[in-house]
Amino acid sequence: VVKVRPNDKDAKLKYQECHKIVKQKAFERAIASDEHKRSVVDSLDIESMTIEDEYSGPKLDGGKVTLDFMKELMQWYKEQKKLHRKCAYQTEKVTVCGDTHGQYYDLLNIFELNGLPSESNPYIFNGDFVDRGSFSVEVILTLFGFKLLYPDHFHLLRGNHETDNMNQIYGFEGEVKAKYTAQMFALFSEVFEWLPLAQCINGKVLIMHGGLFSEDGVTLDDIRKIERNRQPPDSGPMCDLLWSDPQPQNGRSVSKRGVSCQFGPDVTKSFLERNRLDYIIRSHEVKPEGYEVAHDGKCVTVFSAPNYCDQMGNKGSYIHLRGSDLRPDFHQFTAV
Amino acid sequence: MDEASDQSPLRSGGRSCGGWPMRSGERRGQRGGGGSGGRPSLARSMAAAAREPLSASGLDEADEAVRGTCEDASVCKRFAVSVGYWKDPYIQYFVRQAKERKAPEINRGYYARVHGVSYLIQAFLKKTDCNCQIVNLGAGMDTLFWRLKDENLLPRKYFEVDFPMIVARKIHNIKSKPPLSKPIMESHSGDSLLIDSHSLDSSRYSLVGADLRFSSDLEEKLKKHNLDTHLPTLLIAECVLVYMTPQQSANLLKWAASTFPVAMFINYEQVNMTDRFGQIMIENLQRRQCNLAGVEVCRSLDSQKERLLLNGWETAHAIDMMKVYSFLPQADVKRIEGLEFLDEKELFEQLMQHYCICWASKDNSNLGLANITF
C-alpha cells in the first residue's frame, strides 16, 4: 500500500530532489547527436549474425548483461579467449512508454513486466505523466527519482499535461496541494517547463508527445532552437509538438481538440524525408490496443495508461527499440 | 458510503446513476497487486448485476448503496454550479462542497442532463399551462421546486418521493435553512404545514418517504398528500429505475400509466450498456456493492422505448445524451464549453452515448403531449 502522505522528512527530501532536477534540466538541451556523422550502428546488422555451434564462450541472456555473464566473461578472458563478436556488438534495447496519467499501479506493472530502469534497461516516457489518475504525485516522483538515478538512461519528454492549464483542471494541481503545498506545485510547474519536447533515437526515430507541425518545412534544428522553458503558446511548433494528432487523409485539418492541427500521411512523409528520419513515435491519444501504426508505418502511437480513466477499457502498451534495426516491437498489457 | 463521494458521473441533484465512480486507481489501492488477467465476460457481468434474490441484509446493503448515490449526484451538481455551468442558489443548502474538482466531461454531462430534462419539463408545463402536477420519483436533494418557484412556473402541486432516510435528511435541511423553508411557506395557503420526520405536506410542495417498489403504498401516501389523479401529471425518474429489477420498474411504470389518464413520464438513465464501457461500469459499481439490477432494460434505445410502450404508455421516445447535447441552445453550449477546456472529446462522447433521456405520454385529453420533443 502506497503511503500517500509521506512524513515531513520524506516530503523535504523529495523537494530537494525536485530542486536537483530543475538544475539538471537547465543544463539539458534538446536532442540528437550529430546527425551528419554516419553512424556505425546503422551499418551493423546484429540480429542476423549467427553464433557457430563450436563457440563455447559466454553468451548474453536474452541480450541482457547479467552477473553470471560477467563472471563467465572474466574467466573466458583470463583464459585469453575471445568473446563472440555478436555479444560484443549487442546493443541494448530502449523501452518507449506513452501516457501514464497518474495511474501508479499500472506504472508499477510496467516495471514488473519489463524490468526496473537501469543502464541496461533504459526508458523513455513520452509525456502526460500526471492528471486524470489519482496517483499523479506518486508517478511523477517515481519518474523523477529514476531520472536522477540514471540520467543518461531514463528520459522524460513533455506532454500537454505537463502544463499549468491542464494541471489546474485535470487533477494534478489539486492533488499536489492536498498532499503537499501550493509551493510544491509551483516547483513542479517550473520543472515541467524544462522537460524536452522531443528526442531522436540514433538519428532515425523522432519521439514527441503530440505530433507534427501546422506548417511545412520544420527541421530538427528548428526544434532544437525552440525556447521551451515556458508554458506552451496557443500555436506554433512548441504547441504542435505537444498537441497535434495524425489523421488518415492527406493534408492538414483543424484539430477536434480545438488547438493545434491534425496532420496527414503526406505531412509525415515530407517531414521525415526532410530530416532523414525513418518514422515518428508519439502518444497523446488513447487507443483500444494501447498502440496504433498509421501513415504507412511512419507514425506510431504508444499509450501506456490501460483502462484510461476507469472508463475506456483500453489496453496499454510500450515499445522496444533495438539499436540494430529500430523497428518498433510492441508489448501490450491490461490494467491491474 | 464515503468512497462513493466525489467520484461519480452524471448524477443529478436527485439520484446518481452510479456509474462513474473511481477515476483511475482508487480501487486498485484496495486490491493490491496482481495479475492483470482479463475482465469477466460481459454476460456474466450483466447477469451478476441483475442477480436476485438478495437476503434481507443484502437488500439493506444494496438500498444503502443506492441512497449513497444521492449525495454523489448533488456534490457533482454543486461543483458544476460553482464553476458556472448553470445557476442554482439552493443546492449549496443540501450538500457539502466537493473535496476535489470534477472532470470537465462530468460537468458537461450534468449540464446536458439538467437542461435536457428541464426542457421537457418546461414543455409539459407550457402545454398544461401549469394546471398540472409534478411527481419527482427518487428526487433526492433535487432543487427543482425552488427554481420553478423563482420562475413563476410552479405546477398546482409538486411532489417528491424518496427513501424515508433521504426524505428525513431533506426535511431537516429545509427546516434549518430559511432560503429553503421560506419559499415553501410563501407558496403555502390555508392550514398549517404538516411536517413530521418522514413527510412534509404544504399546498404546493410535498415530500413523501416511500419505497418505489411498492406502488400501492406509494399511491396511498401520495393521496394522503392530496394527489389529484385527474390532473395532468408529469412523473420524473432520474437514475432511479436502473436500481430496480425490470419487473419492479415495469410495475411502477404500469402503475403510473393506469393511475393518471393524462400523463407524461421522463426517465433519465443508462443506455447502450452491452459494450465494454457498460461492462466496466457494472463492475466498478459492483465493487461498491451497488447493483444495477435493471441494467438489462438499458440495453439500447429501443429497449428503453419498448419498456415504456409495453407498460401502458401510448407514445415513447428515447435519445442518447450526445443527441440531447446537440439539441440544446447552442449559444449557451458554447458558453459552457468555454468554462473548462476539454482536452479530449472521446471520454465525453463515450460517456454521453451511454446515457439517455426517454419520455412517454398518454393523453386522453388531447393536450398534445405526444408532440413534445426536442
UniProtKB/TrEMBL annotation, chain A:
Q: What Enzyme Commission number(s) does the record list for this chain?
A: 3.1.3.16
Annotated Serine/threonine specific protein phosphatases domain ranges read 157-162
Domain of life (superkingdom): Eukaryota
Keywords from the UniProt entry: Hydrolase, Manganese, Metal-binding, Repeat, TPR repeat
Q: Which cofactor does it need?
A: Mn(2+)
Q: Name one GO molecular function term.
A: protein serine/threonine phosphatase activity
Instruction: Keyword check for Hydrolase, yes or no.
Output: yes
Recorded catalytic activity of this chain's protein: O-phospho-L-threonyl-[protein] + H2O = L-threonyl-[protein] + phosphate
Known InterPro entries for this protein? Calcineurin-like_PHP (IPR004843), Metallo-depent_PP-like (IPR029052), PP5_C (IPR041753), PPP_dom (IPR013235), PPP_phosphatase (IPR051134), Ser/Thr-sp_prot-phosphatase (IPR006186), TPR-like_helical_dom_sf (IPR011990)
Q: Please state which protein family the record places this protein in.
A: Belongs to the PPP phosphatase family.
- Listed name of the protein: Serine/threonine-protein phosphatase
Q: Which organism is it from?
A: Calidris pygmaea (Spoon-billed sandpiper)
TrEMBL record, chain B:
EC annotation from Swiss-Prot or TrEMBL = 2.1.1.233
Q: Name one GO cellular component term.
A: cytosol
Which is a Pfam family this sequence falls into? Answer: LCM
Its protein name is Leucine carboxyl methyltransferase 1
UniProt source species: Calidris pygmaea (Spoon-billed sandpiper)
Q: Where is the composition biased (Polar residues)?
A: 1-10
Q: Which UniProt keywords apply?
A: Methyltransferase, S-adenosyl-L-methionine, Transferase
**What is this protein's function per UniProt?**
Methylates the carboxyl group of the C-terminal leucine residue of protein phosphatase 2A catalytic subunits to form alpha-leucine ester residues.
Member of which family? Belongs to the methyltransferase superfamily. LCMT family.
SUPFAM superfamilies for the chain: S-adenosyl-L-methionine-dependent methyltransferases
